[in-house]
Amino acid sequence: MCDARPAPSVDGMLDISSLSRSYDGTVVVDDVTFRVVPGRMTGFVGANGAGKTTTMRMILGVLAPSAGQVLWNGSPITTGQRRRFGYMPEERGLYPRMRITDQLVFLARLHGIDRAEADGRARELLDHFDLADRADDVLDTLSLGNQQRVQIAASLIHRPDALVLDEPFSGLDPVAVDAMASLLAKEAGDKPLLFSSHQLDLVERLCDDLVILSKGRVVAAGSVEELRGTGADRYRITLDGPGSDAAWIRGLRGIEVRDVDGGTALVDLAGTTASDLLAQVVAREPVAEFSRVRQPLSAIFREVNR
Amino acid sequence: MSTVTPARTDDRTSADDEVRGAWRVVAEREVTTRVREKSYVYSALFMVVGVVATVVLTSILGGRPTDYTVAVTDQASAAIVSSASDVVNRSDDGSTAEPREFTSTAAAEEAVRDGDVDAALVATGTGYEVVGDEEVDSTLSAALTAVGTSEALQANAERLGVDLDELQAGSTVSERLLDPAESDAGARQLAAYVFLILFYITAITFGMSIAQSVVQEKESRVVEILAAAVPIRAMLWGKIAGNTLLAFAQILLLAVAGIGALALTGETGLLSSLGPAVGMYVVFFVLGFVALAGLWAVAGSLASRQEDLQSTTMPGQVLLFAPYIIAFSAGAGVKTVVSMLPIMSAMLMPSRMAEGGVPVWQIVVAVVVNVVGAVLIVRLAARLYERTLMRTERKIGFGEALRLSE
User: Fold this and answer.
1) Residue A257: helix, strand or coil by DSSP?
2) pLDDT grade for A141, boundaries at 50, 70 and 90
């Protein structure tokens, strides 16, 4: 778990500490604790209604927690520090009838940036999204995809100290996802970045760290590598030769057989090593394939959500 | 009942600093967005034209000097009309009366009927007759009667060898006004109603604009980004400041247009008596508008869609419409009391002042009560606004909002 790690001295450590929130006595977020390490992309996953959005709104201070707190560099976060966060809410929204440059500049100025700087920054971001020629257009004349880009630009306009993005990739095509991901990686740099998503393959590809939420509680958190390590060492053995039957493998010691299908067996190591296992099998029958099965995140996700 | 409130109680002082900078940016957006709208520019122009037209029309219909023409058939009548011209001039500044000779009474009557002349002065067996078509202008009629009577008396006195002055001694009945300013009561009453109507229209226009701007942010969900960027109170201050500034500018523009029109039409008397009322009108307007602005913002934050505004703006609309009704229908006592209550005073006090005769203490009480009321209402509004702004899912009632916990 992340909080077992020693606290690094890097600036910009975001800690979520025992946050809870209930509505009408129903606990929506229950004692949620995790850390967003600067310079690492942290994915926030969980089924619908797991409490991701509620947690993010509490991080931003848009919603008051019933208990717990948010720490910035180890101290309770202040409004002034929160103001330098970048936020993309789950429910997208900008002014529909306002020109996109105007609204980006307006938002930047709300964050305390002066007009000239805000102007330049808006142009830079619109350039990046190939929206420079639409700079003076009203938002609702843009396609939904472009509106989404402006929304991301809005969360980046004030060069935030930390990024909290609720489902930033939803509704984007694969090319746009890649463009967005590379921009986020560049913009986040050595700052903490937390984003939620239900697209596990995407999270797996992009994230360094992962927090899995289920029914308001953190059920798993850590680096993607660590989390995959929590799954058992699983191997697939396929015997060589037509009509072979792998059922006899069940008799070997130090393993747990998950599944046998004809000449193929799926086994978890339970006391023995991979090479011992292979040696035992080869001693009896030729082997066509012996491979480690990497657990995809979706499997971990299903497991912790059981 | 879920309770959604912003978590901004942790560090009040730094939050207050944020409010200071951010409300200006919000106010600026309110102003620039509004002045770019064509409907805003047109409605302001329309109202200016309305005010100027009212002043000019009143001046034309009411106080403009008239040159009367009176049909006569003989020299004596013509002399009476010429003498009456001085009397007409005295009672209605700048007006004159001029005789026009006709050969017969029938011809003179024909001219009256056709409207070629304002009246005819015809000799009868017993004296004179002022002949009009449907009516005779009272000023003209009075002048002709007075001159005709005195000419006849003069002639009779000479014939009888009586000293006319002696005969008339003690018969003078003159008029003395205790409050001469009341002479333009009609114009002042009209001015009072114009104040009322302009206040009502301007307050409704900019009040609704606050409510719409708030609900638009809720509807488009941009409110969540704003709430993450600045304290919610900063948004409220910004909206109140921006729209008050716009409304103030409009009222000022109308006041200047009105005063300018009065000066141009030469209504200097009315101008000097209405001047203080116009000044106070602007002061009261700002106070009343600020107090009400909080309510409009809350009306917006209670709504979840534009359609909800019809019901959530009801309290604001009633507060604005009530003085309107009271001004036209209530007795003097009720009017006096209501003209010292917050918000409503903003409409009633200036219109009472335009009508004249308001004791100074009542004006002072109205100002003080309005300032205190504005502070209290805006503070309450800020709390309601903070509690309800982030609830975008459905409409909330005023009562429910009051019961919501922090």
Assistant:
1) strand
2) very high
> What sign for the dihedral angle of Cα A136, A140, A144, A147?
positive
Percent of chain B surpassing pLDDT 70? 89
Contact assignment for B228 to A107 by CB distance below 8 Å: no
Instruction: Please name which of A20, A38, A163, A139 lies closest in space to residue A89, comparing C-alpha atoms.
Output: A163
Say yes or no for a CB contact (<8 Å) between B15 and A76. Answer: no
* For residues B75-92, average pLDDT: 81
Which residues in chain A are contacts of B224 at CB distance < 8 A? 57, 62, 87, 89, 91, 93
Pick among B2, B25, B209, B225 to test the A interface (most A CBs inside 10 A): B225
Whole-number pLDDT of residue B93: 63
Class of A231-304 per CATH?
alpha beta
What is the C-alpha separation between B379 and B290, in angstroms, rounded? 11
**Which range among B76-85, B180-189, B379-388, B391-400 shows the weakest confidence by mean pLDDT?**
B180-189
> Which residue type is seen at B242?
G
CB–CB contact A93 B220 (8 Å): yes
ipTM for the whole predicted complex goes beyond 0.85: no
Q: What pLDDT does B405 receive?
A: 58
Nearest by CB to residue A110, choosing from B2, B17, B229, is: B229
Return the H-helix or E-strand segment holding B99. strand B96-101
- Tokens 């472009």 locate to A146
pLDDT band at A107 (very low <50, low <70, confident <90, very high): very high
Helix (H/G/I), strand (E/B), else coil: B101: strand
**Highest CATH level, class, for A2-228:** alpha beta
Model confidence band, residue A230 (pLDDT cutoffs 50, 70, 90): low
**Chain B interface with A: residues with Cβ < 8 Å:** 1-11, 14-15, 17-18, 21-22, 25-26, 29, 33, 216-217, 220-231, 390, 392
Alpha-carbon distance values, A36 to A13, A285, B85 (Å) = 6, 50, 97
Closest CA to A204 of A293, A291, A300, A303: A300
Q: Find, among A131, A173, A167, A174, the residue nearest to A149 by Cα.
A: A131
Distance of residue B253 Cα from the nearest chain A Cα, in angstroms:
28
State the distance between the two ends of chain A, measured CA to CA, in whole angstroms.
19
When pLDDT is cut at 50, 70 and 90, the band that residue B178 belongs to is low
Q: How many angstroms separate the Cα of A173 from the Cα of each of A132, A251, B231? A: 20, 49, 35
The pLDDT value given to residue A9: 45
Give the integer Cα–Cα distance in Å for B204 and B126.
64
> Where does CATH 3.40.190.10 sit in chain B?
66-154
Residues of A in contact with B25 (CB under 8 A): 106, 109-110
Cα separation of A125 and B381, whole Å? 38
Stretch among A75-89, A110-124, B212-226, B339-353 having the lowest mean pLDDT? B339-353
- What does the pLDDT average to over B351-375? 85
Residue (of A15, A87, A216) closest to B222 by Cα position:
A87
CB contact under 8 A, A79 and B229: no
Which CATH number applies to B66-154: 3.40.50.720, 3.40.190.120, 3.40.50.150, 3.40.190.10? 3.40.190.10
Over residues B318-333, mean pLDDT: 79
Residue A229 confidence class, pLDDT cut points 50, 70, 90: low
Across the interface, whether the CB atoms of B392 and A24 are under 8 A apart is answered no
Tell me the sheet residues that pair with A14.
Answer: A36, A72
Chain-chain contact of A92 with B221 (C-beta, under 8 angstroms): yes
Q: Where are the domains of chain A?
A: 2-228, 231-304
Question: Taking an 8 Å Cβ-Cβ cutoff, which residues of chain A contact chain B?
Answer: 23-24, 57-58, 60-65, 76-80, 82-83, 85, 87, 89, 91-96, 98, 106-107, 109-112, 154-155
A95 contacts B222 by C-beta, under 8 angstroms: yes
Q: Can you read off the two tokens belonging to residue B91? A: 């009672």
